Every structure is written in structure tokens, then in C-alpha cells.
From TrEMBL:
Residues 179-182 are annotated as: Aspartate. Pfam families: tRNA-synt_2 (PF00152). SUPFAM superfamilies: Class II aaRS and biotin synthetases, Nucleic acid-binding proteins. It comes from the Archaea. Mg(2+) 2 binds at residues 344, 347. This is Aspartate--tRNA(Asp) ligase. The record marks 72 as: Important for tRNA discrimination. The keyword Coiled coil does not apply.
Amino acid sequence: MSEPRQVTGWVSNVKILGKIAFIEVIDDLSLTPITIVVKKETNSELWELVSKVKLGSALKIEGKEPQQVVSKKGRELHAEEVQILAEPQDLLPIDVTGKTPASFDDYINYRYLALRLPKIRAVFVARSIIFQEVRNFLTSRGFLEVNTPKIVKAGAEGGATLFSVDYFGEKAFLAQSPQLYKQMLMCGVPRVFEVGPFFRAEKFSTTRHLNEGWGLDVEMGFINDVNDVLSLLEELVTHVNKRLVESMGDQLKSLGFNIIEDMKQFPRVTYDEALKILNSNGFDLKWGEDFDPKAEKFLGEYFQQQGTPAYFITEYPWDSKPFYIMRNGPQKSYAFDLDIRGIEIASGGQREHRYSELYRNLVDKGLDPNDFKFYLDAFKYGMPPHGGFGLGLDRLVMVLLGLQNIREAVLFPRDRFRLVP
Ligand code: ATP
Ligand code: MG
């Protein structure tokens, strides 16, 4: 037996076999319960207490780890003292043993209880690793982590999809993206990133859209061309996935997650090439149209068959992209998307850094340059060539874990029908 140690957690299963009580407790951030063992012949008082303990109770246990573990789940503690800190007052709305599945909505409504289930807890442990590794990678590459306002006067791409707020009598909006701010910063810092919330007011009904999400925004100055941005994003996603697989890949697999064990180099196809692939496979898309979810899904399967779940689509038509993107000839642009498993994860590109071209782009998109004066001014004082991307972190969690619905990747998702809890 080892030195005594303390375990705190919640009872997820109770088994009494003859005169031995086995209480499974989900402790710390572990993804398998620890089995608390109490033998009647060693301590009959304690045995009486634990054999009546209610499923879902919060416990504090003192005990010793045995030399030989007999429980199948691998961790065991022979209890010497057990304190029942709290017992359920009501019927548990979720079966914490995990035997009877709850409804999709109840896993969200009672998220705190669902987090005791290894399969749901694993999503949020993975999410935390993904967020940490994003920060580790970018910080190690000399990016400054910044925070930009979430209550703003102007949107990045027009006003149609913004939530409005009353700002002391003035109309303001919840930020849809840090786009304008991160670009302005390029006139004073060479590389920045931000991890923050974004808000979109569209009435989505899909499995990959939320009304409040968490995004990663990256902007890098002094680039040679858009390929610098593509390479950084590829290295970032590969790093994050590799660290995720190293730290919990085996556990994720045994819990049934369809993870991406090995990320090969991301193919880079142009919009024109992607269009050709689609139209030679039964689609009838015109040049200039954005790819709809059906087309995205098809491309996802097409690249999956080649063993590359992640791929870039580059050189989008300028008409389909926002004003701040740099043109590439009369019709194309230096905009790209990163798709993984047929779902758009990031959009980015090289930006227009020349004042007069940027001004013209705004006018060409039908926007009023006067509304963007605070932003345009930054382009007058030595703005270097720059580029970057916006990446949906909730979507990244979703695709790296192979989840079917983005709501599974968010603790308390915000969609059209969900404002509580
Ligand atoms: P989509 O075409 O899928 O609606 P988008 O092109 O409008 O996305 P961007 O403006 O390019 O989105 O935003 C950058 C990234 O943020 C997207 O690639 C995506 O990963 C994520 N994202 C955008 N909108 C949402 C949303 N409503 N819910 C969750 N993630 C989103
Ligand atoms: Mg996009």
C-alpha cells in the first residue's frame, strides 16, 4: 500500500459484491473513474456508510492505493475515511453511470452533470488542450496576443448580420470579427493573434453555425505573399492536432471519437481547380459562385479518399470576398479557405495594404469610406504588406474530434433557440 491520499469527486456507480463495496468516483479531470474499495471485514462502519451512498453524491475520500489493482478500469483506492459532502436532492436528469443515454438537449441543459460522463468531459478537456496549444504555437512564433473591442461601431462586412446594442443612446454592434482592429495593429506590431468571442445575428439552422462563437484571429505583417499565411496556418493546425493526439489520442479513440491520427501536408487547390473537380462530378456551378455545403461536403470526401482531410482552396473570385482582400488580377483575389472534413474552418488571405487601392475596394463593394475612416487612417503611416485568417475554434474542436454537431463542442451554445442556460 502507498502513502495515504485524498480523492474528491462524484459517485458515478455503486456496486456491492458480497461484503465488498465498489464505489466509482469521477475525480479531477480524469476520463475514467477511480474505484473506491471498502471491505466490511476491515471497517464495517465505513462499509455501512458507503454501501448506502447515493449515485451522484459529492465525496471526499482518504485512502491508499493498493499494490495490485483488481478493478478493470485501472485505478483503485482502499478507503479509510469517506465524507459525503453533498447528496442529490432530486432525481438525476442524466444517468451518471452512462448506461442510459439522455437527449441531445438534456446534455446541454444539464451540462454540469453531463461533464461527469467521460465522453462529454473528454470533449472539453480536448477543447482546453486545443486552445492552449494555439496559444503556445503562436507565442513561440513571436505573435503578440491581443484583445480588441467586442462592442463596435462598424462591422467588417456590412451591417446585415450584426446584433445591435444600445450604447448610451448610440447604436452599436456586437463584433462579428476583429478584422479591422487586427489589421490596424499591423501598423505598429508585426504579428498579432486574438482568441475571442464573435457574434453573428443570422437565423442559422445548421450543425456548424452558432450565434456566438470563439474565434482565433491571426494577422502577420511583412509577408512575402499569401503563401506565408497558408504555411503558418498549416503548421498551426498540424501542431495543435499532433499535441492533441499525443496527450489524449488513445483515450479519445477508446471513447469512440473519430480523430485524425496523422495530418499529411494540406493540398492547395485553386478555386478554379476545385470548381473543375466539382463540375466533372455532377455539379453545375458557375464561376464566381461560392461553394454550398453540398459542394463542400463532396470536396471533403474527395480529399479524404486521398488521405488528406485538410486542404486549402485558394484564389477565390474577388466578388465573393470582402473589400479588405487584395485583388489578384481583375477577377480573382488572394483569399483562401481552409476546409477540414468538408467543413470550412478558416478564411484568410493577403490584405490590401495600399491606401488608394483599399479605398477603391471599399467603393467597389458599395461601402462608404467615411464609415471606415478610423481604419483607413492606419494605412497612411507605413502599413506593411500583411495577411492573416479568422478560424472558428468551435469548428476546429468539432472536426478534430469528429463531432456531428458544433453544439457538442460548446458548453452552453448560443443558437436561435437557445439563450438559457
Ligand atoms: P460560413 O460560410 O461557414 O458561414 P463564413 O465564411 O461566413 O462561414 P468567416 O467570416 O470566414 O465565416 O469566419 C471565419 C471562420 O469563423 C469560419 O471559417 C468559421 O470557421 C467560423 N465561423 C464563422 N461563422 C460561424 C458561425 N456562425 N458559427 C461558428 N463558427 C463560425
Ligand atoms: Mg469564410
